[in-house]
Amino acid sequence: MILLRRLLGDVLRRQRQRQGRTLREVSSSARVSLGYLSEVERGQKEASSELLSAICDALDVRMSELMREVSDELALAELAQSAAANERVPVPVRPMLGSVSVAGVPPERVTIKAPAEAVDVVAA
Fold first, then answer.
1. Contact (Cβ atoms closer than 8 angstroms) between residue 75 and residue 61
2. Cα–Cα distance between 102 and 100 in angstroms, integer?
3. HEC secondary structure over 15-55
4. In sequence order, which residues have a C-beta less than 8 Å from that of residue 46 and are 6 or more positions away?
5. pLDDT tens-digit profile of 30-59?
6. For the whole model, what pTM was predicted?
7. What interhelical angle do 4-18 and 63-84 show, nearest 10?
């Protein structure tokens, strides 16, 4: 069984480690106990949306970026689970979107178009 809380914890831990930060630093910045943050990272506790928001703020990561990474991890875990069970995997599973950078573009000049299966970010 795939547990969302474990995938979420793994992604949070990777985000923190990429920044070279300790649990203590992030827990202090997010105003959550070190022990609780550790349990969230290990997938032992379910994090509320308020707690996730505080952790994302502490890590300076958008919650949408965090959830996108969790979604990608979930898709891979489902594929692995299907392959292990010798189930037929539908092709294509779904198009995966890469990250899009609009650095240096004023927000008022960015248009987001959302067709049924993709999102295009266009700098006008």
1. no
2. 7
3. HHHHCCCCHHHHHHHHCCCHHHHHHHHCCCCCCCHHHHHHH
4. 5
5. 999 999 999 999 999 999 999 999 999 999
6. 0.68
7. 130
